Structure formats: C-alpha cells, structure tokens
What does this fold into?
Amino acid sequence: MELGPRLTEGKTKIIYAHPDDPSLALMVHKDGITAGDGARRSEIPGKGVLAGRTTANVFRLLARAGLATHFIDAPEPTLTVVRRCTMLPLEVVIRRLAAGSYLRRNPDCAEGVRFEPPLVEFFLKDDAAHDPLISPVEIAARNLATAAEVEQITSTARVVFATLERAWASHGITLVDLKIEFGRLPSGELVVADVIDNDSWRIWPGGERARMLDKQVYRDATLVDEALLADVLARYELVARLTDEFASADSV
It folds into this structure.
C-alpha cells in the first residue's frame, strides 16, 4: 500500500499520512524492541509482523466488545490503517496484580497482590523524566484532559482490561497488567489508540511469572545475544498465534 508523508516515528512504529484520505493514517510496525526508556535497543527481524498481527487481533476484539478505537484495518502484515487522532501524552496502566514499577514504588507490597477492581494509573509520556506517575488532578490542571474525560478514560480502560482478561483466561493465561493509550479525534471523541501488542502487557501462563510470554523477558535479560532474541521472538510468535482466536466472533 502506498504511504503518504511521514508524520512521526516512535521506538517501534512509524506513522504516515494516508495518501488518499486525510482523516486516516497508516501505522507501520518496526522490528525494534526497547527497554529502560530506550537505553537498551535491539532489532528482531519479524517482530514488526507479529506486532501488527497481535494489534489487529486485539483491536478487532475490542471493536466487537463495543469499544471506540482508532483501528480501521490491517491490509498488510506490518501495516495498520487507523483514524487520525491527536494522542494524549499519557500512558494508562491497568493492574490486576502488583508487579513491575508498582513494586518499585511500593516496596512493602508483595508481587502478585490482587487489585479488585483493577487499579488504574496514569503516567506522563516523558522519556527524559522516565514517564512519571501523574494524578487525575494534575492531568486536569495541565489541561491534558478534563476531570470528566479522566473518569471516562478510567472506565474505558477497565472495560478494555476486562475484555482482554477474559480472552487470555480462555487460554489459561493471567493478564497481570496492561498499558494502553488514548487519542482525540477531530470531533473531540476519545478513542483507544496506538498499539496493543506483546510489548503492552504482562501475561503469565497459569499465573506463573517464570512462564511469562511478554516483553519482560527482554527487560530482565542480563545478556542480550542471538539466543535471547530468538527466545523473545518465539514467545511473540506464540502470543500472535493465540490472539488469532481473539479475532473470531466467539471470543467476546
């Protein structure tokens, strides 16, 4: 598919204008993987294909669940067609179990403590400041979103999480936490946007951290070599294959 002018580029994707429709954009998934705010970077040939496949499967599931998203289609393995929107500079993290940065910020909490309902946290997208935690009050004070929009985002985030939690549970896999982002359409409507792929969550088969299938394998590695990258790719391939079932009509 022909690409329009490049609009922006991130660590794992490039956004292009749609060549024919100014209301749409084209998202190309790259083979890059990063950790530590980009301090660790690697290329894994084939990762972009798997990221695009997983993202398409997830967003098709969310659409069938009635959630408003920017997703339109995935006509090529690494290409996603999306509605053009202005991204909020926020990462929204939904946690079912305590893990990762939550434990670093709350050292008295044990890994695996369950949150009911899932805990929703907001982080300001700022690599230089290591994506700091930001409160709903601060979000409104900075005019990033209104108080009512923060409530809407929180409610939607929990529905997104519940939808994916059910889908993963059908495979005997625990969705530990999930990072999503939101965009604002020209109409002002907020939609789930960006990507949701194997870099976006922690998933533990059988609820066992030692069997993790997600990006944390790359983050935790003390040595990044060909064997490690091959292992990461194999886990991403399995995840993409499992999410193929998300795209079926029976998966909601």
